[in-house]
Write a structure and sequence with these properties.
Blueprint (H helix, E strand, L loop, with lengths): L6 H8 L17 E8 L12 E8 L21 H12 L11 E4 H4 L1 H8 L7 H7 L4 E2 L5 E4 L6 H33 L7 E7 L2 E7 L2 H16 L12 E3 L1 H4 L5 H8 L2 H6 L3 E6 L7 H13 L4 E6 H26 L6 H34 L11 H15 L2 H18 L7 H24 L4 H33 L8 H32 L1 H35 L1
Parallel strand pairs: 5-8, 5-9, 9-10
Antiparallel strand pairs: 1-2, 3-4, 3-8, 6-7
């Protein structure tokens, strides 16, 4: 026998939701009469199922069939008569009929407002009134700029971080400029104090200067505020994008509207300019997520499928907080007059980098999971709660691709190549700009101190060139890029045991420490020696920086061209 889920559970389960109801105590619930639509499959799966039979079953629902927010004990018929007729039309035609009466979208920026609250809670964890109010967040539309495909099995906060960085990194940089600029204005207006001192010995200036952490603190608060406020600042964000977001584009309480939305996904996809996959580990294990991939490529052969693995932005977030933490430790050490034992200070300040390297290795393992999931994709392993939904999705795929095997070959081959050619797992250059802004803000502590102390302009320019740009931007990004490459190359433990795994991270950290220290001592001597030496060092570090970005991109484009030729 085939059963169907209660209407209030359908959309969340269909979209791959995490069902907290499975943890609830199972209560004695009277049998519910459930009307389920099933497909009478032919012997050969090469042909799509076109006949629809209606079965009336009496089943005793388990906790899996009952919403965690409100347990339904009344008799439900699913699908409704209107939906049954619509489904007959969908299955017997092209599956891409657009239901213009219920097509609704939401702007990406609006979905991320209030800390992305629409993303952070699964509809199954909401009350009935909260689910009903979700519909009011969307507005009527005639198309979608972006169809956001994701699974509710993944915590919503990860999607919020990913989308905030994707859409708001420019605003975050603007926030950084505002934060550092405001700190400088307040310092030179004598509003913010400079309570610490630093001994300076340069080619044209020697003495004690006063400093504080204000530029660094302003940069940190600025970039964080810019990121959080980016959904509200529209001029710098790309034009308003109308998105399909399941919880607001499909009604969560009205049974008929819900059914029309769920089984009209093919139509929604056919009027979408881009399918953006917010990939996480469980994504390809959810049948409805697979359905969206299959439907979009069939409906829009030339449409844009964009793969956005969540681990990329999570890794950048780890790095950003880690870099600021290290910078604060370093300057606190200088404020405590520990610069006489500089090697010890540097080692202590950079110790958190060891944790960052290990976290990056663990985070990058998701990339290998992504590659493995695409290469070894098996449609039969994709999970679906109801037999009706499974038959619906399978029959759709057979209709579009000829057979389930043909679709699996497509995912393992052409689709995998298409997504990898995009460079989906590469870190965008804008993210590197955010990371380098962390260290550049820290260098402004010294530059501000020199200006306030009345140091000669050549000394200030030398410090700005050799230290701020030469070391804290160009050399830092070069070392960071190399370290990130190696953490990916050696993400998988080479030897068994947790201790050996940590040892592998420690060796990568030591390489980072050696390269970072070499650059620091080179920059320190250069900008203190002369402006010419500082300029030469800056040119050298800039060349290293360019090579670290140009070579990987060149290799990537060569591979892309070869894949395109094949």
């Amino acid at each position: 026998p085939k059963t169907a889920l209660s209407a209030k559970d359908c959309v969340a389960c269909a979209m791959g939701s995490n069902t907290s109801c499975c943890n609830e105590e199972k209560a004695d619930v009277p049998p519910v009469e459930v009307t389920a639509v099933t497909h009478e499959m032919t012997e050969s799966e090469e042909e799509p199922a076109t006949d629809i039979a209606l079965e009336v079953l009496t089943v005793k629902p388990t906790a899996e069939h009952v919403s965690s927010a409100s347990a339904e004990r009344s008799e439900l018929k699913f699908p409704s008569e209107a939906s049954r007729l619509r489904l007959e039309s969908i299955v017997n035609t092209d599956h891409f009929e657009v239901d213009q009466e219920i097509i609704r979208g939401i702007s990406l920026s609006k979905s991320l407002q209030w800390g992305g609250r629409l993303w952070r809670r699964s509809p199954l964890d909401m009350t009935e009134q909260e689910r009903q109010n979700l519909w009011n967040h969307s507005t009527p539309a005639d198309h979608f700029d972006v169809f956001l495909s994701h699974t509710w099995l993944t915590p919503g906060r990860r999607k919020v971080v990913s989308l905030l960085l994707q859409s708001g990194w420019k605003v975050a940089l603007l926030g950084w400029f505002c934060g550092v600029g405001l700190a400088e204005i307040l310092i030179f207006s004598e509003i913010l104090p400079l309570p610490f001192t630093l001994e300076v010995d340069m080619f044209a200036f020697k003495g004690t200067v006063s400093f504080a952490f204000w530029p660094m603190l302003g940069g940190f608060l600025g970039v964080l505020s810019g990121l959080i406020l980016s959904p509200y600042i529209r001029p710098l964000v790309p034009r308003k994008q109308i998105c399909f977001l399941d919880v607001v584009s499909i009604h969560q309480t009205d049974q008929e509207l819900m059914e029309r939305g769920i089984y009209g996904l093919g139509g929604f996809l056919s009027v979408s300019k881009e399918l953006r996959v917010l990939w996480s580990s469980p994504y390809l294990s959810r049948l409805w997520c697979v359905f969206e991939l299959a439907a979009y490529r069939s409906a829009c052969p030339e449409g844009k499928i964009t793969l956005k693995p969540l681990f990329v932005e999570m890794g950048i977030l780890y790095l950003m907080f880690g870099i600021y933490f290290v910078a604060f430790l370093f300057w606190i050490g200088i404020a405590l007059r520990l610069e006489q034992e500089f090697l010890v200070l540097e080692m202590l300040a950079l110790t958190p980098v060891l944790v960052m390297v290990h976290l990056l290795r663990e985070n990058i393992k998701e990339k290998f999971k992504l590659l493995s999931d695409l290469k070894d994709f098996d449609l039969e392993q994709a999970f679906c709660r109801t037999e009706f939904d499974r038959n619906f999705v399978h029959s759709s795929i057979v209709k579009w691709y000829g057979s389930k095997e043909a679709f699996m070959r497509y995912v393992r081959g052409p689709l995998r190549e298409e997504l990898l050619i995009q460079g989906a797992t590469h870190v965008p250059f804008g993210y590197y700009m955010i990371l380098s802004s962390c260290t550049f803000a820290a260098s402004m502590n010294t530059v501000t101190a020199l200006v306030k102390a009345g140091a000669p302009i050549p000394c200030i320019v030398s410090e700005l060139l050799g230290s701020s740009f030469g070391f804290y931007v160009f050399w830092f990004l070069f070392v960071l890029k190399l370290t990130m490459f190696l953490t990916e190359r050696f993400a998988v433990p080479r030897w068994p045991g947790k201790l050996m795994n940590y040892g592998q991270s420690f060796m990568l950290f030591m390489l980072f420490f050696v390269l970072y220290s070499m650059g620091f001592y080179a920059a320190d001597n250069a900008y203190k020696w002369s402006l010419e030496a500082s300029t030469m060092w800056t040119i050298f570090s800039f060349a290293c920086f360019l090579m670290s970005f140009i070579i990987p991109r060149f290799v990537f484009h060569v591979k892309r061209a070869m894949a395109g030729a094949l």
